[in-house]
Design brief:
The protein is mainly α and 83 residues long. The protein has one domain. Helix content is 45%, strand content 0%. It contains 3 helices and no strands. The longest helix is centred in the last third of the chain and has 15 residues, at 60-74. The protein starts with 22 loop residues before the first helix and ends in a 9-residue tail after the last helix.
């Protein structure tokens, strides 16, 4: 969720959620949104995602990490075996 720039959902920053608390439910609670069920999580995600227009609305650090992941999973990691 925090890949979305908080400004896109009308916030200056994402709320801090303690490590011992469910991240998604804790985030929703701190945003003042329904946070009792997985259904609440799904509805909130759909609403947040609907605010994203394009990749400019995402934190650039997220884009960099995604590019690294794509490069890693698409690289040939098989060692050449001499026959």
């Amino acid at each position: 969720w925090q890949a979305i720039k908080p400004e896109r959902i009308g916030r200056k920053a994402w709320p801090e959620v303690p490590m011992d608390e469910d991240f998604k439910l804790g985030t929703l609670k701190r945003l003042g949104l329904p946070h009792e069920s997985q259904s609440d999580v799904g509805k909130a995600w759909q609403a947040m995602l609907a605010q994203v227009r394009d990749w400019h609305d995402l934190d650039p650090r997220f884009n960099t990490e995604m590019e690294k992941l794509i490069d890693f999973v698409t690289a040939d990691h098989m060692e050449q075996v001499d026959e």
